[in-house]
Amino acid sequence: PRLLVVVGPCSIHDADAALDYARRLAELAPRVDDQLLLVMRAYIEKPRTTVGWKGLVYDPQLDGSGDMAAGLELSRRLMLQMIRLGLPLANELLQPLVAGYVDDLLGWAAIGARTSESQIHRELVSGLDMAVGFKNGTDGSMGIAIDAMRSAAHPHQHFGMDDLGRPAVVETSGNPDTHLVLRGGNQGPNFDVPSVAAASAALSKAGIEPSIMVDCSHANSGKDPLRQPAVLQEVIDQRLAGNRSLRAVMLESHLFDGNQPLSDELQYGVSITDGCLGWAGTEQLLLGAAERLRRG
User: For the domain 3-295, what is the CATH code?
Assistant: First the structure.
């Protein structure tokens, strides 16, 4: 089976730059699609530890004006343009009300480290018809995410929103297509062989087929975006050694390396949230990964 690669900006803040990136990714995809299934990060919400810019859907003007109606319209229009390029899309589902406006456009979704314990998000996932990854906690613990996977696999009845945006009682059928996302924790990374083996054992003990994504960013890279390639190479090493539970990876990537503070004069194609690997490095990395997997 191919390796799923969710790759793209930490958070989209500039529609033009995001489309520029999407076009490049769409051109790369056929060159690696025998080994890699590329899915673009189209992240329109940004979870914050305290406060800060919360994403395109909340503040598309980047000025604190909070024009969320414009943010929703821009986000959906941009996603549709990306889909027309032939790219599957990924997003983190943070605000359940926002999810109702975009979930029909997504091929994959994440529940973040801070929300995997939330019953509301587990209920939301149970009604989605796409694969969803639950991240381990910021402390590195896997138990909360595994509990979330078990919960989301079951039917739920919960308060929600119907297709016309009205309050409704929602009945879900359960989502069997969830997996664990290892993103590291406060104690350090968790993509090494012992950590992956421990995660697989914990999933099996919970009665879940081990299905694991490694987030090459965040605590697994020590928040240094240029260390992401080393994490990906380790995942490929483990797959080539016979590990079948490692199904996917995530990379934070933009047109140019690094990040920048939010200001009146932003550099084009540079993240304003987490630091990212630039496009040149990303393209080289993915071409090399596909070639390594071909050689076996």
Answer: 3.20.20.70
